[in-house]
User: Which sequence fits this backbone?
């Protein structure tokens, strides 16, 4: 084992050399140093605001649904390490990847049949867009190369995903003059509204000749604003895409694997996309891996083209270590009464966050599945809100005007109550 770096030196080295997400370089604040994690708790190398352990209210950006250091997932990783940690996927295959692809086809909505395993959620969106563009080029319609989405969305930080994030006020506004120009409908209302449904229908119809696909986050818009909307809009999009010859992509990177109360959010609309993106909880938060699924129509269309292959191949595609842990994570989830656990978390969040409605500066409180959101009428004071949560013994990561939680599914009732108290404390401080 390497010699441990003293805490103060580690923090100094981090500030000097490590570029953290959505942060400046060098950093202006010192991140908390996590020494270990188990269950739903992060153990800090040094106490912060009187706390040595923090309940994780974020599931490590929504991925660690089973918590940390889970024996089943640990065993899956160890077993695969003894076999091989990686092997290239070009010209080779292996059981963990084949099992994972087969399982994903079994549990996702029909008629998704084919699985491209990739590195991250953002890359899965890149692959999804490439699939749709190549499908139309291969079937003689190369002019169909734009994408339609609705405002308030977020699909990742690489190039094509940035192009379909909300261009106004979002994280990628900086690139609005450089990114491909896509088509944006208005943000979807929470409840079904026929006037808005007509707005969606008209947008698809008006741009159908140039649209390769519509891409949306079903039911919950994640990092774009943690907004919820009626599943009925998914049916409107499916019908409109079918009527006008446009492909439909559902980005389920954040919503997949039970987070909204169904295994996949698409199920709430009773429809299936032509292409689906999965990630985050796929490996239970252990390793980076994502998947892009498509129908046989899409796959066959690409295969009939002048270039009859999907022109994409990440080095670590279908990594066997990640695939093995993903298989174990899916098995672990489906072996339990996960719908009841999500309902338990939903009830606890509704009860625990109710008092936030009475706090000054709170605009709205909303809960769906294992997602709890407190929206302020002003931008969050990140430092003050985070410190308030840490003092309450909970790790949260507010952004923009939102203080929210997406806890691991294994969070017990007492810990969930503390998470809600921390969200309220952060809202009061922020």
Assistant:
């Amino acid at each position: 084992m390497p010699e441990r770096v003293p805490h103060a030196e580690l923090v100094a080295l981090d500030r000097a050399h490590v570029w953290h997400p959505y942060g400046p370089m060098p950093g202006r604040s010192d991140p908390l140093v996590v020494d270990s994690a188990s269950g739903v708790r992060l153990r800090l190398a040094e106490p912060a605001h009187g706390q040595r352990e923090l309940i994780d209210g974020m599931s490590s950006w929504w991925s660690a649904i089973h918590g940390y250091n889970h024996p089943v997932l640990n065993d899956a990783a160890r077993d695969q390490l003894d076999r091989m940690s990686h092997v290239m996927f070009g010209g080779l295959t292996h059981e963990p990847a084949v099992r994972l692809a087969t399982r994903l086809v079994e549990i996702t909505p029909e008629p998704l049949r084919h699985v491209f395993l990739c590195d991250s959620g953002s890359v899965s969106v890149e692959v999804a867009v490439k699939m749709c563009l190549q499908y139309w080029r291969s079937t003689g319609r190369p002019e169909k190369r734009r994408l339609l989405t609705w405002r308030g969305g977020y699909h990742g930080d690489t190039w094509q995903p940035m192009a379909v994030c909300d261009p106004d006020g979002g994280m990628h506004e900086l690139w609005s003059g450089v990114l491909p120009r896509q088509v944006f409908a208005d943000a979807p209302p929470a409840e079904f509204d026929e006037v808005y449904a007509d707005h969606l229908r008209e947008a698809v119809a008006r741009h159908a000749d140039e649209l390769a696909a519509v891409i949306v986050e079903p039911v919950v818009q994640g990092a774009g604003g943690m907004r919820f909307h009626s599943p009925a809009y998914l049916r409107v999009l499916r019908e409109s895409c079918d009527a006008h010859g446009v492909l439909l992509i559902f980005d389920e990177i954040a919503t997949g694997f039970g987070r909204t109360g169904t295994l996949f959010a698409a199920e709430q609309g009773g429809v299936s996309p032509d292409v689906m993106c999965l990630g985050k909880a796929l490996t239970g938060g252990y390793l980076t891996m994502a998947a892009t699924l498509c129908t046989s129509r899409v796959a066959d269309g690409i295969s009939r083209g002048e270039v009859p292959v999907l022109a994409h191949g990440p080095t670590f595609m279908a990594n066997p270590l990640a695939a093995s842990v993903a298989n174990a994570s899916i098995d672990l989830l489906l072996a339990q009464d996960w719908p009841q656990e999500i309902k338990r978390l939903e009830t606890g969040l509704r009860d625990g966050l109710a008092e936030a409605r009475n706090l000054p500066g709170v605009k709205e409180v909303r809960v769906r599945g294992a997602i709890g959101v407190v929206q302020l009428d002003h931008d969050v004071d990140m430092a003050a809100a985070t410190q308030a949560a840490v003092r309450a013994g909970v790790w949260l990561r507010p952004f923009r005007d939102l203080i929210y939680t997406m806890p691991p599914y294994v969070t017990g009732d007492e810990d969930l109550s503390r998470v809600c108290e921390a969200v309220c404390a952060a809202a009061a401080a922020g």
